[in-house]
Design brief:
The chain is 26% helix and 33% strand. By secondary structure, it is α+β, with helices and mostly antiparallel strands. A hairpin with a 4-residue loop joins strand 4 and strand 5.
């Protein structure tokens, strides 16, 4: 009888520990990536990464055929205006991730014209088609541009530099 109770307690705490780790893991990933890049990346500003090579160690298995940019956001005090010129001759995308690492919105070159303008907000009543409602006040937007040919790199870097994240006051 005592052995059965002891086993039940062990199983209970094992299950409880497992659930706690599964719940907390995405938050730990986001916070550790933020702390690892804290000196290089500023909140609510775009960080543009040069093309990656074999020596790049900040992201696990990055693609050398993609230009990456990122905007770590905190929209607790203001909304965020996101603007970019979009190349029509190659793949381009912006993926929005909440604090829990859930991808809650993605837009790509096939869905927009030559320019994209979006407002990232927590205001659920925003009905404008340009509004992207974030489930959390903090998160990250990752922009990707495919490099089909290295000779196009200067032109693609111009598109990359056009990506902007600007705080705008809430109305």
């Amino acid at each position: 009888m005592i052995k059965a109770k002891g086993l039940a307690v062990i199983i209970f705490f094992a299950v409880l520990s497992h659930l706690a780790v599964v719940y907390a893991f995405p938050y730990v990933v986001v916070m550790s990536s933020y702390l690892a890049t804290k000196d290089e990346v500023k909140v609510n500003e775009v960080y543009h990464q040069k093309p990656v090579d074999a020596s790049f160690r900040k992201v696990v298995m990055p693609s050398p055929d993609i230009l990456y940019s990122a905007c770590v956001y905190d929209i607790s005090r203001s909304d965020l205006l996101i603007e970019a010129r979009v190349p029509k001759f190659t793949y381009w995308s912006a993926s929005f991730y909440s604090l829990s690492t859930d991808n809650f919105f993605t837009v790509n070159d096939r869905m927009v014209g030559e320019k994209v303008t979006l407002m990232l907000t927590t205001n659920k009543s925003c009905m404008n088609e340009k509004c992207v409602v974030s489930p959390s006040e903090r998160g990250i937007v990752i922009f990707r541009i495919f490099i089909p040919d290295k000779s196009l790199l200067p032109a693609l870097e111009e598109f990359q530099r056009s990506i902007k994240c600007k705080e705008i006051p809430r109305s």
